């Protein structure tokens, strides 16, 4: 029997509800997870790691099957090819579901910075990638538009000609195009605003930096909702999450503070209890290797992968209950339970003998 057509009003309601529905932030029954730390605009390194993980083929198309790929934030800035990184990740995110997989590009502090206009870390090469044949005219038009707006508001600069000259000298060619692309309706801005800041896959939570005591009782939905709201609305950023050192895009103590710092271990336990998880997997703070902290309750995966930091090619793999680190294409058992850390560090050091910071850490762990 032919089904009756949905009434237009009902169709509009369905579309409205779909548009307003929060992005999924919890996933269960995942057999393989690949987690990569801060890639910072290093397209070549990202491609190399994805191929090592058997997630892409020679044409850079998804080949990872049902694997879930987590990019732990800071895909952009510092490095030479942020735009190419974003284009690749966007393509893989669209391709993976048809094979049963998923790509989770989490929001880091640098994605947030690019969206809200803090462009201190956009590289010279990145600016070049945004340039177009009309960049000079676009920049001049933007300067004139801002000058007109200031004049209409009754706050014109004392010297209009000097203002225009200073603006053009302080903004690189490609600036207008970059701001449009990261705007609410731009290719990258619209896409990034739809992503999560924190997700849970099986018994692990993933986020860029970490959850501070200020937000210890916040749910994933609350964190993701607030981050998106603040990215959209400057008025909500005062005492908000996306710019404060205590926010989930910036908080470092889970990686950098001494583990015996008063109250910190109890805080880790509280966060895991709130999130109903066993592990927190975070980036943001560069370390000499992927490291377990607090007995493996925190796993720090930012090893300075990009050409900017010159760190080792290293990423985390979770297959059911087992954790592995792939370092320079070598597969090592990872002590996610906090036991056997010195043996793990010796194994990584043997693969990466030029890593002086790792050698120092190994000495501390074997005294």
Topology:
Layout: H1 8-20, E1 26-27, E2 33-36, H2 43-52, E3 68-71, H3 82-95, E4 102-105, H4 109-116, H5 124-130, H6 135-152, H7 160-170, H8 175-181, H9 187-192, E5 198-201, E6 204-207, H10 220-232, H11 253-256, H12 264-275, E7 279-282, E8 291-293, E9 298-300, E10 314-319, E11 322-327, E12 330-333, H13 341-351, H14 356-365
Structural notes for this entry:
With 367 residues, this protein is α/β, with parallel strands linked by helices. Helix content is 39%, strand content 13%. The strands form two sheets. The chain has a six-stranded mixed sheet with strand order 1-5-6-7-9-8. Strands 4-3-2-10-11-12 form a six-stranded mixed sheet, sandwiched between helices. The longest helix has 18 residues, at 135-152. Mean pLDDT is 93; it is low at 1-6 and 10-20.
Q: Report strand %.
A: 5-15%
Total helical elements: 14
Structural class: alpha/beta
Listing every helix as H and every strand as E from the N terminus to the C terminus, the arrangement reads HEEHEHEHHHHHHEEHHHEEEEEEHH
Instruction: Specify the overall morphology.
Output: globular
> For the terminal residues, how far apart are their CA atoms?
77 Å
Residue runs with pLDDT of under 50 for 5 or more positions? 1-6, 10-20
Q: What is the alpha-carbon Rg in Å?
A: 22 Å
Largest sheet: 6 strands, mixed
* Mean pLDDT across all amino acids: 93
Q: How many DSSP-defined strands? A: 12
Strand order of the largest sheet: 1-5-6-7-9-8
Q: How would you describe this structure in keywords?
A:
367 residues, alpha/beta, six-stranded mixed β-sheet, 14 helices, globular, disordered N terminus
């Amino acid at each position: 029997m032919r089904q009756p057509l949905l009434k237009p009003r009902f169709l509009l309601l369905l579309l409205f509800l779909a548009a307003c529905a929060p992005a999924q932030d919890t996933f269960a029954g995942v057999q393989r997870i690949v987690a990569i730390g801060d890639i910072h605009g290093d397209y070549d390194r990202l491609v190399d790691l994805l191929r090592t993980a058997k997630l892409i083929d020679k044409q850079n198309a998804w080949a990872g099957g049902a694997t879930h790929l987590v990019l732990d934030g800071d895909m952009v800035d510092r490095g030479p090819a942020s735009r190419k990184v974003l284009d690749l990740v966007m393509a893989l995110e669209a391709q993976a579901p048809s094979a049963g997989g998923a790509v989770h590009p989490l929001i880091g502090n640098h994605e947030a910075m690019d969206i809200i206009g803090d462009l201190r870390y956009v590289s010279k090469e990145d600016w070049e990638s945004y340039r177009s044949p009309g960049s000079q005219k676009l920049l001049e038009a933007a300067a004139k538009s801002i000058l007109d707006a200031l004049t209409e508001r009754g706050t014109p600069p004392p010297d209009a000609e000097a203002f225009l000259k200073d603006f053009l000298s302080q903004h690189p060619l490609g600036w207008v195009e970059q701001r449009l692309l990261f705007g609410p309706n731009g290719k990258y801005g619209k896409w990034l605003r739809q992503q999560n800041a924190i997700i849970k896959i099986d018994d692990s939570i993933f986020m860029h930096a970490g959850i501070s005591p200020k937000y210890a009782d916040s749910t994933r939905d609350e964190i993701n909702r607030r981050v998106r709201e603040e990215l959209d609305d400057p008025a909500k950023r005062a005492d908000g999450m996306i710019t404060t050192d205590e926010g989930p895009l910036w908080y470092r103590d889970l990686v950098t503070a001494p583990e015996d710092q008063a109250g910190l271990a109890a805080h880790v336990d509280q966060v895991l209890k709130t999130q109903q998880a066993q592990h927190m997997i975070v980036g943001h703070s560069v370390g000499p290797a992927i490291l377990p902290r607090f007995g493996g309750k925190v796993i720090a995966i930012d090893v300075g992968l990009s050409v900017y930091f010159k760190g080792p090619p290293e990423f985390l793999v979770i297959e059911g209950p087992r954790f592995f680190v792939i370092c320079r294409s070598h597969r090592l058992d990872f002590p996610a339970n906090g036991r056997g850390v010195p043996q793990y560090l010796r194994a990584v050091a043997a693969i990466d003998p030029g890593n002086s910071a790792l050698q120092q850490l190994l000495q501390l762990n074997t005294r």
